[in-house]
Amino acid sequence: MDTRRWVRGGCVGKGSFGMVSLALDRANGGIFAVKSVCLNSAPPHAIAALENEIRLLSSLDSPHVIAYLGEDVTEEPSRGGRCRNLHLEYLPHGTLADAAAARKLGEHEIRDYARSIALALQYLHFTAGVVHGDIKGRNVLLRSAPGMARLSDFGSARRLSDVSAEGSAAVGELGSRSNASAQMYQIGFGKDVPKFPVGLSWAARDFLDKCLKRDPTERWSCEQLLQHSFLSNSLNEAGPSPRSVLSFAESELECEHEGDDYEDDDGGKCGYEDSLGAESSRARERIRQLAPMVRSNWTDEGWVSVRG
């Protein structure tokens, strides 16, 4: 695609050495995005990052990753000379970071977006053999369908694998107003993970814990995360209540005091769930060991109505 086939429009994003513009395809009137750096003025590392992104994106094909449409070099004196361009699909609904900054996202929304990110990572790690390297809310572009998103910005991507970044993105968006950079530093170099927002369900807290394990051997893979109850459970269907103490091991009942605070021994405020987390986990594990291997079926099928 060359300048005879498309026209550059307004700027929709700008970095230190490059910019993203809207573009019009003269052949069909379609709108797409163009990510460009000026070859005459951009530093070598910025040009290398765009070349790396072009090379990787051109080899990817997933509904959870932004679509590659092409690349070219154009002569644009008004922009400083020759421009290296990456052509991408245009998603006009903003980023996950924008959505989180505009309003407090509900846990069900975060669950949907986390599922999209996990599916993108599953494809990248296990099919494409690529690690993104810069997962954050601003690199998650929202689609028109609620809860659907695509991963973008592959300038830092490389052919390795790691899943801890998903948890950091989820923590940032669940907290919505937190300092994402500080959280990323704490996850990467600190001894402790960031504090989870008060009021999260047990499933959400456990999901984040699995993502943020510092030991790679303990950290869950994308495939495991997609099977986690936080992502795998239907958002519109409530599971059955436990019918016995042995059913508690598989349940996700939320504490009725969720959101309440109490003072710990040092006088600090803690979420009520924090006081029960360790004890609850131990209890669940013990009950799971005692529970029968064959689970009871409490559906409506096979029951007989009896009148007393």
Provide structural commentary.
This protein is of the alpha+beta class. The protein has three domains: 6-88, Phosphorylase Kinase, domain 1 (2-Layer Sandwich); 96-237, Transferase(Phosphotransferase), domain 1 (Orthogonal Bundle), CATH 1.10.510; 238-293, no CATH class. The protein contains nine helices and nine strands. The protein has helices spanning 44-57, 96-102, 107-128, 164-175, 180-189, 202-211, 222-227, 229-232, 272-290; strands spanning 6-14, 18-25, 31-38, 68-76, 81-88, 140-142, 149-151, 261-263, 269-271. The strands form three sheets. It has a five-stranded antiparallel sheet with strand order 1-2-3-5-4, covered by helices on one side. Strands 6-7 form a two-stranded antiparallel sheet. β4 and β5 form a beta hairpin. The radius of gyration is 24 Å and the shape is elongated. Residues 234-276 and 292-296 have low confidence and may be disordered.
